[in-house]
Amino acid sequence: MGDFQQKYNLEIEEADNYLGPDGHIKEKVMLFNGPIISANWGDTVNVTVVNRLRTNGYHSHFSTSYDVDLGPFLISDWYYGSADQMMSRISSATEPFIAGQPGSPPESDNVLFNGTNVDPHGMRGGRYAHIHVTKGKRYRIRLINASVDNSFTISIVGHKMEVVHTDFVPVRPYHTDHLFLAVGQRYDVVIDAEADISNYWLNATFSETGLCGRSRNQNPAAILHYEDAPDPDHELPQEPGERPEDARCLDSLAYEPVLDRQVSRFPVGAPNVLTADMKINRATNHNVIPVLMSSRESGNRGGGVHGLPSYRVEPSKASVSSKSLPVRIEEQEVSDTPWSYWLIQNFSPVPHPMHLHGHDFVVLGRSPALPFPPATPVGFTGRPSMFNSTVDREGLVWTNPMRRDTTVLPGLGWLVVAFEAGNPGSWIFHCHIAWHVSQGFSVQFLEEPESIGAGMNLGEVAENCNAWRQYAPQDDALKADSGI
Fold first, then answer.
1. Interior CA angle at 222 toward 174 and 183, to 5°?
2. What is the pTM of this model?
3. What digits encode the pLDDT tens for the residues 63-74?
4. Domains annotated on the chain, with CATH
């Protein structure tokens, strides 16, 4: 615990012919140069970023007993091509990465563990990431899926994991031998180093469905290394381990928050649904993947899920799709109903890791994963499973449901989440797959807009926006995506 101000300086720069962590050379990369940022709960972190690029962007996540805290362990897909090059093909209706499937993403070239891995393509380069442990001790580690597109099931040969946090929400200890991590999800786990002194594979396994990530490295792994075991750079683990159960791209809902919450039931009424779909506009050779807000009620008044709370929907010039609308949650609505309910209906077979800014949400329920193998020879097709207000509402979990800020919307299915309103701001709810959010897969909502100015200086925001308006015409800046 602490109450200090931690100050850090970072520089962002572009590099040519960069020797990557797996030994493969990339033509261009953008690099953060600076120290590791660390702080205690309660500290104020002040980061000064010097931008030596022409573009800019910033993204952050507020990312039981144990002996040693090993800190964060990031697992992420790695691509040799540039983001712009890949995004161009993903947004192409005529040259997709999978023939006949516009909008399909590329395979990752590798998967990195804490920024390193060997080259899976036969070249000598890179090294496996090592987690060092001593027999008899308990270790806490924060598993983070920082990928653009790839989701994984994590397992450690010969070891179990005790899950204690989901997206920074404390949960009652949950023991498992495998753990599915969707893009953007974080888990704090405790590992008992009680196995024989040796080296063990930490495996990241892809779903056989192919719906939540593919890679040219089909068996990405790191090494759990016991003290006094052979040097893992010279003697690799011998036991590959068993393939874990396929989660079919869905995260578990079994985690029980330590802080109990009772969610108020919403009444049966007219639904207000966020629909998630992939729209292919072949005329413009561009994909738009909007999340649309629609209501069956008249006028511009809508219900939450089946009537609670009432939202006011207003057009937004900032939206990529003209049909996307920001939701406005009023202060009086917050006082009347603290819970805001969201039903998301997916008309695409692709599962989407949905991430909410400004809040944790509770997962009240969702439809099952798509069957695998697919029910038809042509793959994952068919009509979506629509939320049934009579049947499905009764199966929702109201007493202490799982709470986090990222969960998976099933393919051709539905998801119901709720959060306690009361945090004034301009927030977004979006798919955490980078390709999709770039294409506009998000919805913006204004929460207690009249109170936003009490928590921040809106004049500083206006000053920055005015500076951009002056700069953009002179530099012929082109806004090629959603900007999120």
1. 60
2. 0.81
3. 368 999 999 999
4. 1-58 (2.60.40.420), 64-258 (2.60.40.420), 272-470 (2.60.40.420)
